């Protein structure tokens, strides 16, 4: 079994807070992996470590079969990875097309390929008529779609998508879901976070759930479906009793 992502005891502390606590992740190549958890569970911190934006406090990780603590190997891996980070990290004073072209060139794609992929991605994300606008002038959803286009431009073997559907309209969301399914069909691995469990249930083949930095569940989606819904499973492992306890006194009267 080939693994696209493997971590062992992956840990990140911020002062006294342990945001990610001894994570052992196993993500098989060619799977659509939903990485779930409540707010503040450590999902974005994990993605930042896996994509080299944040150093782990301890533990090890292998991405696309390479130990990314080796900087030369990490650089090679980055060529094969597309990322939508939590904060999107666009450049305000570039137009949509300029930004995509910049990202394409960073991946060292030939100019003609960059031009063609920019055309197709801008059309797919219904941003073609906005391509001359500065990204600072984009709406939140438009920024998200541009970040997704940038993640797809290298035709990556592994995609890290932090909340890819948040803020994206229904039409673009459907197009994006199809595109991601196509990426997985041709052998790529998609690792995404989302709070929209209905989308994850439809799309993902595998699920990991974190709570307070710890992995509390990891299985194939089929296993979850056999025993109920993803929402039920999620509430079971992160604590559904919380819902009972948190009631507003003035609404209960
Ligand atoms: N740079 C930082 N400095 C200090 N604490 C941080 C930092 N980044 C994250 N944290 C803390 O680490 C914990 C995990 O945060 P993280 O952003 O990884 O959660 P998340 O699961 O992505 O949450 P959400 O679903 O709300 O986006 C939180 O308690 C957060 O406050």
Description of the molecule:
- This protein has 11 helices and 11 strands.
- Helix 3 (96-106) crosses helix 4.
- The mean pLDDT is 92.
- A hairpin with a 2-residue loop joins strand 5 (58-63) and strand 6 (66-67).
- The radius of gyration is 19 Å and the shape is globular.
- The chain is of the alpha/beta class and 253 residues long.
- The longest helix has 16 residues, at 170-185.
- The chain has helices at 43-50, 71-78, 96-106, 111-124, 140-152, 170-185, 197-203, 221-226, 230-238, 241-245, 249-252; strands at residues 3-14, 17-23, 26-28, 32-36, 58-63, 66-67, 81-84, 158-162, 189-193, 206-211, 214-220.
- Bound molecules: adenosine-5'-triphosphate.
In short:
With 253 residues, this protein is of the alpha/beta class.
Q: Strand portion, in percent?
A: 15-25%
Helix content range: 25-40%
Structural class: alpha/beta
Main sheet attributes: strand count, strand direction, barrel closure: 6 strands, mixed
The ordered string of helix (H) and strand (E) elements is: EEEEHEEHEHHHEHEHEEHHHH
Bound molecules: adenosine-5'-triphosphate
Whole-number mean pLDDT? 92
Q: How far apart are the termini?
A: 56 Å
Total of helices: 11
Strand order across the biggest sheet?
Answer: 7-8-9-4-10-11
Radius of gyration: 19 Å
Which term fits the overall shape?
A: globular
The number of strands is: 11
Which residues sit in consecutive blocks of at least 5 with pLDDT less than 50?
A: none
GO molecular function: ATP binding; ATP hydrolysis activity
Domain ABC transporter: 5-237
Keywords: ATP-binding, Nucleotide-binding, Transport
Protein name: ABC transporter ATP-binding protein
């Amino acid at each position: 079994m080939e693994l696209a992502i493997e971590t062992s005891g992956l840990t990140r502390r911020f002062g006294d807070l342990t945001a990610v606590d001894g994570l052992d992740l196993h993500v098989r190549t060619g799977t659509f992996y939903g990485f779930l958890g409540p707010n503040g569970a450590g999902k974005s911190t994990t993605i930042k470590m896996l994509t080299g934006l944040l150093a782990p406090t301890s533990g090890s990780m292998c991405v696309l079969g390479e130990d990314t603590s080796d900087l030369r190997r990490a650089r090679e891996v980055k060529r094969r990875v597309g990322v939508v980070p939590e904060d999107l990290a666009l450049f305000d004073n570039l137009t949509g097309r300029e930004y995509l072209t910049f990202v394409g060139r960073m991946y060292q794609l030939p100019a003609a390929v960059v031009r063609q992929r920019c055309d197709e991605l801008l059309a797919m994300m219904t941003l073609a008529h906005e391509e001359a606008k500065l990204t600072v002038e984009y709406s939140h959803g438009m920024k998200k779609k541009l970040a997704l286009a940038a993640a797809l431009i290298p035709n990556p073997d592994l995609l890290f998508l932090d909340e890819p559907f948040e803020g994206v309209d229904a039409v673009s969301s459907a197009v994006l879901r199809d595109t991601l399914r196509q990426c997985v069909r041709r052998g790529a691995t998609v690792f995404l976070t989302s709070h929209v469990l209905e989308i994850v249930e439809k799309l993902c083949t595998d699920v990991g759930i974190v709570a307070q930095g710890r992995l509390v569940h990891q299985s194939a989606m089929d296993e979850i479906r056999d025993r109920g819904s993803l929402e039920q499973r999620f509430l079971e492992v992160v604590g559904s009793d919380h819902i009972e306890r948190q009631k507003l006194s003035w609404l209960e009267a």
